[in-house]
Amino acid sequence: MINLPAIPAEDHYAPSAGLKRALLLSMDHEMFPYSTRRANGLDLDHTQPFTPGRRRQTRSGNLAPLSRRVHRVKTARTWRADQPRPSQLHWSSPLGYRYEVTPTGTRMLA
User: Fold this and answer.
1) What's the CA gap between 39 and 95, in Å, rounded?
2) Using an 8 Å Cβ cutoff, are 29 and 36 in contact?
3) CA–CA gap between residue 45 and residue 3 (Å, rounded)
4) Positive or negative, the Cα torsion across 45, 50, 57, 47?
């Protein structure tokens, strides 16, 4: 069992090898609604954008495996993401639908 909240936050942009390994073991697929892409080879994307100079942004509660395409739609604010806790993302689509994505799958939110 991996206790993601217990892993220390980091101050640099790229996650350490240990943090990356723990995240990929706990989230083995892309954390986007209904995606079946394996997480290996995807970027560990900051859910809230990384701001140079701010401390403790690279942490389990602000990282998730995403493809470059999903990163671009998130950055362009076409889709909006929130990460209430490690391994759980809430997404809002351009049409207003809301989804919860966890390592066990996707469910629509009311």
Assistant:
1) 26
2) yes
3) 20
4) negative
What are the counts of helices (DSSP H) followed by strands (DSSP E) for the chain? Answer: 2, 6
All structural domains of the chain with their residue ranges: 4-109
Please, are residues 62 and 83 in contact by the beta-carbon 8 Å criterion? Answer: yes
Q: Specify which residues 10 forms β-bridges with.
A: 58
Give residue-wise pLDDT tens across range 10-63.
999 999 999 999 999 999 999 999 999 999 999 999 999 999 989 999 999 999
Total residues belonging to the chain: 110
Place of tokens 């240990």: 18
Place of tokens 């990282």: 63
**Residue 26: how many other CB atoms lie within 10 Å:** 16
pTM: 0.90
Q: How many CB atoms are located within 10 Å of the residue 79 CB?
A: 17
Cα separation, 99 vs 51, whole angstroms = 26
